[in-house]
Amino acid sequence: xxxxxxxxxxxxxxxxxxxxxxCDYTNSMFDYFLWYKKYPAEGPTFLISISSIKxxxxxxxxxxxxxxxxxxxxxxxxxxxxxxxAVYFCAAGSSGNTGKLIFGQGTTLQVKP
Amino acid sequence: DGGITQSPKYLFRKEGQxxxxxxxxxxxxxxxxxxxxxxxxxxxxIYYSQIVNDFQKGDIAEGYSVSREKKESFPLTVTSAxxxxxxxxxxxxxxxxxxxxFFGQGTRLTVV
Lengths: 113, 112
Known about the structure:
The complex is a heterodimer. By secondary structure, chain A is mainly beta. Chain A has no helices and 11 strands. Chain A has strands spanning 4-5, 10-14, 19-25, 32-38, 45-51, 56-59, 62-67, 72-77, 86-93, 102-103, 107-112. In chain A, strands 2, 4, 5, 9, 10 and 11 form a 6-stranded mixed sheet that branches. In chain A, strand 6 and strand 7 (62-67) form a beta hairpin. The relative contact order of chain A is 0.34. Chain B has strands spanning 4-7, 10-13, 19-25, 31-37, 43-51, 54-57, 64-66, 76-78, 87-94, 101-103, 107-111. In chain B, a hairpin with a 6-residue loop joins strand 9 (87-94) and strand 10. Classes of the chains: A mainly beta, B mainly beta. The A-B interface holds A 4, 6, 9, 31-32, 34, 36, 41-46, 49, 51, 89, 91, 93-95, 97-106 and B 4, 6, 31, 33, 35, 40-45, 48, 50, 58, 88, 90, 92, 94-106, 108.
């Protein structure tokens, strides 16, 4: 049973435009969420996180939105740059699981020049 | 530099052999994790350890074993019982809840 789902395997956007990556979860015990970026044959690198007590967190070009009632979060990248092309994973954790993270399947973002 | 190191980057194993993947961190993190990545399936948790001398099974622990004798080290053994061991293996560590996990560069294991 997939507790964290990224239903779009891929996304293609034009440089300068907004990229929106989506993630849904089913476990209501999750209380913090993270986005990671991954290049082929490398480990994921942390991008941004959000606690369930917030509905938005912003860091430069990256903004994460959380809709708890819909059990949905999204990552907005604006403006998108070719260097943003990578696989993006959302992950979720709960206070009761002391750091254990559950990951989605990933979305491959391609930003075209 | 603080970080998490996995070795080797590429590993080849013959069928029926056990192999051990190394993971070392100098971030002073209590928790360490092993994930496996397969195409289209994201990262799946194999084992995790929240403290020295203690570890728990993740979602896909069958055919794997771990040890946590030191805070800095969390080696993963892929045994011959693992039916489909060819994958990209990622080790991570974290300082606790509501903090990000830091990942190593991964080990690509191929069974030949």
